[in-house]
Amino acid sequence: MTRLLTIALLLTTSAWAAPPLRSDVEVVLGPKLYRDGDVVEITDVTATSPRLEQGDTLVVKGRVRLDSKPLAHLGLYLTQTDGDGREETDPEQTMSISEGLRDFELKITIKHQGSLHISLYDEKTRRPFGGVYFGTRDQMEEIAGRKLDYYLED
Question: Signal peptide position in this chain (predicted)?
């Protein structure tokens, strides 16, 4: 009997320790703006829930073309709608890219309420210069009028 309880406890404990499962999520693109030649294409999103809300972890895969600069950072971030705007960045949320076409995979755990986006950032100034918002249909309807003109400011 003790042996059976020990085995049951071990199996239960390992189930608790396993990371949450992610499944494919259909997303809608929202506001986007790029400099000539630059583009971010999202090809696959998996998440721990289709709601893409606080507490969910998601992985975004796609392709990025960088033509306007020799180097940049690509980042998966959340523009907060509720909070102080500060948030630590996990290493899996960003990557350095060079001019040309390449695949990417970025991961984020949503820690606040807000809107997800993948953006290009200047290597030196860290200012954004292009990107795309994405999420559920309802989330993108909420931000449909968001202006991104600051992406094109120098």
Answer: 1-17
